[in-house]
Design a protein that fits this description.
There is one protein chain. 24% of the residues are buried. The protein is of the alpha+beta class. The strands form two sheets. Strands 2-1-8-7-4-3 form a six-stranded mixed sheet. Strands 5-6 form a two-stranded antiparallel sheet. It has one domain: Nuclear Transport Factor 2, Chain: A (Roll), CATH 3.10.450. It is built from four helices and eight strands; from the N terminus they run H-H-E-E-H-E-E-E-E-E-E-H. It is 30% helix and 47% strand. The longest helix is centred in the N-terminal third of the chain and has 15 residues.
Length: 139
């Protein structure tokens, strides 16, 4: 069952960010959204779109499971599980690229979002970056 209100916005935002749906971002995030995870920092929706697009190139067959999601006032909280095939180059920085190994990646994450009206103005994703890197470089 699809969620409504801010909970629905957070659910759609998680799906868009993890599956690479850049086109959905304008209806979900403010222009000046602040987004952070252990792997990136974005201080606008256009920067977030760049990050989401890059993920789309390195991951395929992305599956998102939302174990818990709640919104209290202007803050939303979610626990998610993501699985994806590592099928394209993963850009660490301009000089460091991890080539795909074809493995399935599994990642658990906790997400906190802040709302301005019906759009997300800040979002933070917390996960074990070392566990992700280990999966990226595994044979």
């Amino acid at each position: 069952m699809a969620r409504s209100g801010r909970a629905g916005v957070l659910e759609r935002a998680l799906e868009a960010c993890f599956t690479g749906d850049v086109g959905a971002l304008p209806e979900l995030f403010t222009d000046d959204v602040s987004a952070w995870s252990p792997n990136f920092l974005a201080i606008s929706r256009s920067e977030l779109a760049e990050v989401v697009a890059e993920r789309d190139e390195s991951l395929s067959n992305v599956s998102l499971g939302i174990d818990a999601l709640d919104v209290v006032g202007n803050k939303g909280y979610a626990e998610v599980r993501v699985s994806a095939m590592f099928s394209g180059p993963f850009l660490i920085d301009e000089e460091t690229v991890i080539e795909p190994n074809g493995n399935e990646l599994l990642l658990g994450s906790a997400v906190v979002a802040e709302f301005d009206g019906d759009k997300i103005s800040a979002i933070r994703a917390y996960f074990d970056n070392v566990a992700l890197l280990e999966q990226l470089v595994a044979p």
